[in-house]
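Example record

One chain of 379 residues, shown exactly as stored in the release files.
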Amino acid sequence: MIETVRTARRSAHRAGLVIALTAALALLCCGGGISAYFLGGLGGDNPVPLGGVFNCGRGGPVDPNGALPRLGALGEEQIRNAAIIINVGAKMQVPPRGWVIAVATALQESYLRNLGNLGSRNDHDSLGLFQQRPSQGWGTPEQIMNPEYASRKFYEKLLQVDGWMTLPLTVAAQRVQRSAYPDAYAKHEPFAAQIVNLLADGAARAVGSLANLQCVAPGEIAASGWTVPVKGSIVSGFRTPDRPSHNGVDIAATRFTLIRSAAAGIVVVARCNVSAPDGGPWSCDRDGSPAHNGCGWYVDILHAGNFITRYCHMVSQPRVQPGDRVVAGQVIGQVGSSGSSSGPHLHFETHLDGDRSSAGAVDPQAFMRDRGAPLGAQA
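Predicted structure tokens for this chain:
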């Protein structure tokens, strides 16, 4: 009899949660009713394939009480807690950028585990997904150990941060958390965006309000924190048959077009790199030619996830210096034709594992598409 009552209570709780989530996700409809889907079954161990994960959030978050997909080494508890964080954000009408920040913060603080043990292994009286402290006014221990409550309190604090949507993730998270390790959040941004994309139909690739989520357009910053550096057609691709050593893509743009940082990061290089093989005259302050070598005026930026982006052939000295911290969309220079160049354009590279050499280069079109900021005229 007792077990029957418990089962009935669990069923009622699930039904109530689904009703509440359905109401919240009505915000995500796109011109024809609610397009959110819920995955049935509780506690399934098998990964659930999700259709339309490139839909830029138009499908909405999944039910945290349903069968959920798996990602990397995350267990059922962790992926379910991530789903709760995302759904609380949706119910509060927080844009998807906030979901990425919240999930990244929980990855750093607890690796998405609802940690208890007051006064033992945690710092001071820190508890729960976000390691919130009762002694600092976050709530009672019982409240903080409720993932929905803890998520709501995180978002309430985040929404009070001026300009949080355009701040680097680590800065926004730190202004909420006041951590002793303020730079630690940044490394979780790529994985947090992956989680949000998986559980919320590609929402980390989206911009806009919850009532009208759209795939990112040039100049806009996706919830993942990435944006297109310049708008233009791809006129030369990555390591094509006729240019097998071309480690980036060339994006057509007129002289003096503003070049923007593709994501938040730290400038590691900003200098002139050009030479003339015949020993003739050269300068980064005038147009180069295919007979020259080098990038001309160029910038390398190190981003969260140990990614590097490179921006070549600027018309004049970059507007940033090594050591500068930049935000996504910040102007770092202007399009030109310095160095090994036959005309104004941006040569843009993406590198993995902090490797600035050709060995670390990957196709920028695929890299940026995966982050919701596709390059080229179709962007």
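Notes: Residues 1-54, 118-122 have pLDDT under 50 and may be disordered.
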